[in-house]
Amino acid sequence: MPTAEPLWEIFIRSKQGLDHKHVGSLHAADAQTAIENARDVYTRRMEGVSIWAVESKYIHASNPDDAESFYDPASDKIYRHPTFYNLPDELKYM
Amino acid sequence: MDQPLYHYTLQLADTSLIMGHRMSEWTGHGPMLEQDIALTNMALDLIGQSRNFYQYATRFQEGMTEDQLAYLRDSRAFKNLLIAEIPNGDWAVTILKLFFFSAFHFHFYERLSHSADRQLAAIAEKSLKEVTYHLRWSGEWVIRLGDGTEESHRRLQSALEEVWPYTGEMFEPSADESLLTHNNTSVSLPSIRRPWLDTVLRVFEEATLPASAMESGWMQTGGKNGVHTEHLGHILAELQFLQRAYPGCEW
Question: What angle do CA B60, B53, B250 make, to 5 degrees?
Answer without folding.
Answer: 90
